[in-house]
Specification:
This protein has about 220 residues and is of the alpha+beta class. The chain has two domains: about 140 residues, no CATH class; about 60 residues, Arc Repressor Mutant, subunit A (Orthogonal Bundle), CATH 1.10.10. It contains eight helices and nine strands. Helix 1 runs antiparallel to helix 2 and helix 6 crosses helix 7.
Length: about 220
């Protein structure tokens, strides 16, 4: 049994897959579940984004996308579809990379996942080195507390975790604040009231666990 598992983060620039193109065209941020590759080479995709009609329109206009389905879930749009084109991500998966999370942001992708052992890491790195636009961001050992998602680890709902993460990324917690609550809410595609409620509930859950206070 191999007792070493490493986490790696890659940034992918210039990918021409449908999600990269649509996120670039619509200036969208898209969270993607690990893509499923079929035997025929096509890809089953599941992803979500803040409501953005331009993003949906770009997907509908793309001849590589089939059977596009969209549903409104907790203030976001959740999608399912079939893609006739593989992305650069699959090159790393074929080398042994286990996808944990994937986010497209205005055309670029941030890919996080696991590699089991140094031999697999070397194969993944060689593949990345031969793939245009793939850059290694960091590699670190997987600790026991990291073998779970942020919501699972801190008992947050996905909506609460998304509100906190978006607020951090946009500079809502900086001093002075870089954005207002309304601007973060607009970026998420929800109302200011909904954003603040998710944020406060998430902060309460997070801080209660950090300081061991009963809720």
């Amino acid at each position: 049994m191999i007792d070493e598992c490493l986490m790696a983060e890659f940034r992918i620039r210039g990918d021409d897959c449908p999600l990269a193109d649509a996120s670039r065209a619509a200036d969208a941020v898209v969270d993607v579940a690990p893509p499923l590759l079929r035997d025929d080479g096509n890809v089953l995709l599941r992803f979500s984004a803040a409501p953005n009609e331009a993003f949906t329109a770009a997907l509908e206009a793309d001849d590589r996308i089939r059977y596009l389905y969209r549903a409104a879930v907790d203030g976001r749009h959740s999608y399912r579809c079939l893609s006739l084109q593989r992305s650069v991500v699959h090159e790393l998966v074929s080398a042994g990379f286990v996808v944990e999370s994937l986010r497209y942001q205005r055309g670029d992708a941030l890919l996080t996942g696991a590699v089991v052992g140094q031999e697999i890491l070397q194969a993944v790195m060689e593949t990345a080195g031969g793939t245009v636009g793939v850059e290694l961001e960091r590699v670190y050992a997987l600790g026991p507390e990291e073998d779970s998602t942020v919501p699972e680890r801190w008992d947050l709902t996905p909506a609460q975790a998304d509100a906190i993460e978006t607020a951090v990324e946009m500079g809502y917690f900086t001093v002075p604040r870089a954005v207002t609550a309304s601007e973060v809410a607009d970026a998420m595609g929800i109302s200011k009231t909904a954003f603040l409620e998710r944020l406060r509930r998430g902060q309460n859950a997070l801080f209660s666990q950090v300081f061991d206070v009963e809720r």
